[in-house]
Amino acid sequence: MSDRAEIAREAREVIAAARALVAEWGEEGIASFDPAAARASSETIDAAEPVETAAATAVTAEATEMAAPEAAAPARATEAPAPTQAAAAPRAGAPLSLDAVRDELGDCTRCGLHNGRQQIVFGDGNPDADILFVGEGPGQSEDEQGLPFVGRAGELLTQMIEKGMGLARSDVYICNIVKCRPPRNRTPLPDEVAACRPFLDGQIEAVSPKVIVALGKPATGLLLGRDVAITRIRGTWHDYEGIPLMPTLHPAYVLRQYTPENRRAVWEDLKAVLTRIEEGAG
Ligand code: SF4
Hints:
This protein is of the alpha/beta class. Helices cover 50% and strands 9% of the residues. It is built from twelve helices and six strands. It has helices spanning 3-27, 35-48, 53-67, 73-77, 98-105, 140-145, 152-164, 190-207, 217-224, 230-233, 251-256, 260-278; strands at 124-125, 131-135, 173-176, 211-215, 238-240, 243-248. Strands 1-3-2-4-6-5 form a six-stranded mixed beta sheet, with helices on both faces. β5 and β6 (243-248) form a beta hairpin. α5 packs antiparallel against α8 (190-207). The longest helix is centred in the first third of the chain and has 25 residues, at 3-27.
């Protein structure tokens, strides 16, 4: 790609991110923005985790979500143009396996995110899990380790699963909307989400969970096929192709807004998931 094309692409990314941010602020009724306060908040995160920019950025996104983040883009993914390269359709007889989906993904170059990744972050956990968690995309730690949710936000998610739900992390399955780290941890663009979508669909089909937990606005918006305000929709049951879906706050957002209310909200959502499982969800 020429320098000019690269600059144009980056400009489109910045504009898309800004539009998503503004749309989310509007949705949340935020009429003004204090840059000094935002910088101070960001610096606090940076000081606490100088390396984990993934969590910090995701948090910024999710934080903006109440105040705004990783938001509006996934919902817009439903409006995305078809990817330029053929997206794989991991459908091949019965029953679909995670290995088959991973094999179909291969050394994927179907969207531009492959340019900046260290490795594909496919997913992790029990291929027969009752509960499948879906996040937005890999961050720095995930890109380095090739596993989803292993940074600070991942540690919190693991605590939620193990200490909160009384399960082992290996009991559940965890994946993201996109399998490659977006530059600077920005929200994935609609064409990137569209290109990777068949593999998320394949993972859901292969695992066939009893419940899906959508972490944050992008995952929730994508799976429900519409823009959502995560702070309003969390804690309520929805349906994804016959599978009960519970939206909850992204752990990165909870880290950023580490309040008793947010922790309680997530815990209430996860308790509802456990109850649904016990009642024989599906
Ligand atoms: Fe392929 Fe998904 Fe990575 Fe894009 S994000 S290159 S579609 S694996």
